[in-house]
Amino acid sequence: MKKFALLLLFTIHLNAQEIITLEHDNTGLDYKQPEIKTSYSTDEYRFQNISIPTLQVILPKGTSKSTSAMVVCPGGGMNANSFFHEGLNVAKALNEKGIAAFVLKYRLVPFHMIGKNEGLESYFNEKKQLIYGHLDALNAIAHVRENAIKYNIDPNKIGIMGFSAGGAVAIEATYKSEEKNRPNLLATIYPWMAIVEKQEPPDYGPPLFVACTTTDELNLAIPSAKLYIDWAEKGFISELHNYHQGDHGFGIRKTGFPVDNWFNNMIDWIAAIGMLN
Predict the structure, then answer these.
(1) Domains of the chain from N-terminus onward
(2) What is the pLDDT of residue 118?
(3) Cα 49 to the center of its chain, rounded Å
């Protein structure tokens, strides 16, 4: 009852927006604990041990015509979900540009398995978890498209964006998408490509936006550039912003460096390709 009351208060605080439980099958996963919420600043927290994928619906106010939409996948190394600076705060910024936002809590590596690869290759658990996380993203896109009238969005202008591990989730979902859950655009912010198997861009080539920094301590700049090249070589719409300064995980926070422009660069790009209503 206490957990329900907290969830209710949290939902009211977010303008009573809807939280959707997505279809899922945890066969092959071993969750031994409930979902964990941990604080990492005075007013922000993150989730771990997510076993039930959900979608937080955050809609712009005062729009009469159908809007574009974005499924937002926060990062966290496949073992956490950075719910604020790569999730809710991004959704708020999208709303201010007239874009409907849907923040995804995809399934994560079970808490007791974090860091335990048992002698197998590096990132074994994270790569395995991506199999489940990308399905959650596909179900999220499908839900948004199926409920386009309800949410007052254009079903042909549904994008997906992700940060770090969330970028891997968004990319894998794009690679594996079908017509019902196909994103109309893809934005990856310092995507963690180490857990994504090398694949060819899908034939329909959704427009791609990539942002990273050359000083990213996880060395994600070159993999980000290679992702862009994969799209560019196919002649697909693509744009790359590899800024120099800025640590990994900047999200929507201000750093004082030019990378702070990434969000407005993305919005300008969305408008330029005709995906902004």
Answers:
(1) 19-272 (3.40.50.1820)
(2) 63
(3) 17
